[in-house]
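Need Olfactory receptor's 3D structure for a figure. Predict it.
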Amino acid sequence: MDNKNWTAVAEFFFLGFHELGRLRNLLFILILMAYTITVLLDFSIITLVSTRQCLFSPMYFFLKNFLGSEIFVVTLIVPNLLHVIWLEGAPISVPGCIAQSYLYCGSGSTECYLLAAMAYDRYLAICKPLHYNTIMDPRLQYFLVIFCWVFGFLLTVITLSLLVELKFCNRNIIDHYFCDLVPLMDLACSDIYALQMEILVLSIPILLIPFVFVLVSYACVFITILGMSSITGRKKAFSTCSSHLSVVGIFFGTLIVNYLIPVNGHPVAINKMISLIYTVVTPLFSPIIYSIRNQNMRDVIKTLFNFCKKI
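Structure prediction for Olfactory receptor:
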């Protein structure tokens, strides 16, 4: 493109959910409630897991880190989303937008690996119970968590390097509520082929491999559960694993639909609704599923409620 025919963009402008009209007010209230409940529940569970000795196990150690990453993601996206809805649109600088996109991609990648680590933990606990404590020792726990956080953000440095190279000119309206990759590519006036290929290639180690790993792990788990003679043990194992699979299904399902289906595969409004699922809805249900479906968490919560009643 001839440099004389375009003007470099200094900031973008989010449209948010402009197509909803007056329903935006209802959406604002619902999202604010969801965000408040999510953060309170996540912090409550992290506090319980960190202070109650009966919850000092690898499964809850990984859960604590996963919920911490959920808090990071919703705090990165949702306050800005509420700001956009309230003002019926809001600006963001180009560097700020690229930084938000990188942090979001990095934390999302970390969550994928943490879910895989949690699946591996359940596989060892149920399929290799005699060797579980030997294999899943504190050193391996810390190694897996550090690997998830560091590798998740390191991989997305490639995305950051390509985003920084994009040129944005003339158009600066983002029909979305945060700096997701697809809306940014739509606005670029430079070649986006390298970024498209990078997203496709990185989706293999970030999305597909962890997802397949989780599925294989739980296939082994369910085969082992079906072979258990104890009905109580079978019920407890199913309860723990089904809660994890519920989160995994929603989380990976929405990400795969949003990033592996071609850009023109679904309308912008549908794209925003899918994004809303994994930035607002999934983080809301994660702590609820893990606390209600997990017997140990229910026992601790009941104990705390009984203690509060006595006070």
